Amino acid sequence: MSVFMKRRRLIKLMAASGLGGLMSFDVQAFDRQPEPELYEWHGFALGAEVSLQLYHTDGGDARRIIQNAVKIIDDMEGLFSLYRQDSVLSRLNRLGAIDNPPADFIDLLQTSHRISRMTSGAFDVTVQPLWQFYKAYFSSPNREKPPLPNALRALQDKIGYDKLHISRARVAFDHTGMAVTLNGIAQGYATDRVADYLKSEGMTSVLVDIGEYRALGPQADQTPWRIGLMDPVRTGQFSDILEITNGAVATSSGQGDAFDERGIYHHLFDPHSGKSANRYLSVTVMAPETTLADALSTAFSAMPAAAIKDCLKDLPLVNARLTDKAGAVIMV
Question: Is residue 299 part of a domain?
Fold first, then answer.
């Protein structure tokens, strides 16, 4: 499923040739360092298409580094995947508790807990029972419309980040039937773990995409990485192009995983009401690290703009781009 590809920066080389012509050749060229080339890997992990792009002057070393990075991605999937029955997360949801969980698993749950407090509960990893409820409800041919309020109220005992107990020795639920989803933060966390490794290898021109984006430095020609934001109103078109040289970008939209044809019921939930969050068509967050950007894009989907602005007072390096239901863009 995964392939290595090497691609020369042909546009850059053609531009240099056009500017310098034949006169750009001189004897000093024999002493110059090799030009970095772009190496890419593409695969599938944590429910999304993923890719790595890095510039390196040594193809063999680039492949070694990418193989190690892919191993990290595989390890993260073994911890956080809802699709793998043998993952640590799936075991927690099945058993209700696990002893001696791996350090990365604890780290992400504790980070999730901090962001839950930061967003007054708008980010909550214990909303998985809501997804299970809506999935079953909309799969039933005899369902009533809309979902019965008392059915949602019956789930409230199973929802709440404070009902998930986390320690280095044990993770456990308060109630039977609780379940965790890390889909609103795990991709960002995996992206940061890979980025940390690439940084330790001295990589300075990298773009990691594990569902969300993280850049380490510009491209080799010093131009920024360009990331297109899909327009939630005009299908197949971009609403904006972001240019980044360092930092992270994450986007959340209910259009990505809807239960009904109209897209009113989808995977982005307001943990307080149990309903899908429909304040915005999409939310994009730019932050220094992808874990935070990923989680906040999820949380902000359920928060009014004023509450988002208040949340960001203590996060001066974080910005949010909200597209409201009329298609208007609000920058926070």
Answer: no
